[in-house]
Amino acid sequence: MSDLELNDGRAGAIRPDPSTPDGRDMLISRVIDAEATGDDWRAFRAAAETDPSIWRDLAEAQEQHESLCEAFRASARVADAVELPELIGDTRPFQHRLDMVGRWGGWAVAAALLLVWATGFQGAVPGAGVQSAGLLPGTALAEATPDQALDRYLSAGRDAGLVVGEVPDRLVIEAVPLDDGTIEVMYLRQFIERRVTDRVFREARTDAGTTVPVPVSTQNLQRSKAF
Questions:
Q1: Is 61 exposed, middle or buried (0-12, 13-18, 19+ CB in 10 A)?
Q2: Contact between 215 and 39 (Cβ < 8 Å)
């Protein structure tokens, strides 16, 4: 039997198997999103009888879901208060950059969300702290050029144990010849940083394709590397 089966309570839906990690995540996601059918609830209760820890996972996922919603609500309130300047002149170069960002933006947004989840929404949720706060004096940062500010951050980050290093290769995204004979190069610059957190989450998708964070037990967490 596969991890996922058709759910009799909803035409075309999938019945998660809570005995598997993916099925357990999907079942919890449905409950949080208020999309659980009668079959889903019966499967959840049956799983809870043999493994009561699923209730704890549900509570942690619900708490994280509320934190995520609050973080986005806080960001939306800030965005709503910002008035964007009206574009003047030819907007085609700007649109070209938007199209280019669209090609790269998917993984960038996903990476940003994962970082936000892992660090506990510092700066967006009331009472949350930022581990890297205070690395640079405000006056020195204000007077520095962008390159100087970045160099100071990297130096201070290394001293604090937060910055591991920089990936030497830079990925060129676009090179555009300019009228004055120079070339505008847009590239991806990557840094390796370290953060310490008391909570780790994995991605799970609902039937609607929505990505939601699901807490991972530190007891079952294995050391992993992306490269």
A1: buried
A2: no
